[in-house]
């Protein structure tokens, strides 16, 4: 297992980021601690979260994931061994949203407090805010970088045109530049990234960390028909994958997994890891047993394996 550099940053991570969206949602605090213990004991170092995680859960208000991670870091005293990514810009509630400079400067303090740290390695624009000038957003980040509160910035859920415009404004105005891109990408959801975002990542040397790397769990191979959808709290959102192409992908995943003595989930993640423009996938686990997915890092798919998966998942017009 070798570390990879995140774009033009000096951050080095193993090619599997733990997705903190489950903390305070499908994993309670005790389970979250156990998951983080095992993840880091196996040598991994990259944790991805956001200020909005997990505001969608009844009774939550946002910040639960960061709070759990912060308590764990405080207990373990291991901040210097970790790369922590968090985000700003998602709508937490009617007053906590957007990318106004004043809001970013306030919200980063809340994230730092919850994470029990004095700096964030990678701070993401989680969602674009077309009502705020790009210069204003980047100036906020510049102030935070100068203060040592964040080290690098990344971008997610922004149109290709706006990303390019932001990168060019950074260059022209000597402002901080996005160094990492976080797109949706997996064996099923390929077209948008490969067509619209991959060229940007390659041209501007952006690190790429993918979310929904397992298509919300569909690529684990647990779902073959609508009868299987009640196996997960995310079941209703998986219905869109149960079509001819989706079933073909699952069948091929199972075939490749059998050839490699692996699971479909491990193969799906290994496929992403072996894509040339990808730095690391993000995936989560709610139970300790699900961490066997980390074996994907050491799974070397053959050229035939990769070709079979590419063919099965190709989007046919």
UniProtKB/TrEMBL annotation:
InterPro entries recorded: AKR_Detox_Biosynth (IPR050523), NAD(P)_OxRdtase_dom_sf (IPR036812), NADP_OxRdtase_dom (IPR023210)
GO molecular function: oxidoreductase activity
Keywords assigned by UniProt, alphabetized: Oxidoreductase
One Pfam match: Aldo_ket_red
Coiled-coil boundaries: none
Domain (NADP-dependent oxidoreductase) ranges: 17-312
Protein name per its UniProtKB record: Predicted oxidoreductase
GO CC annotations, alphabetized: cytosol
Domain of life: Bacteria
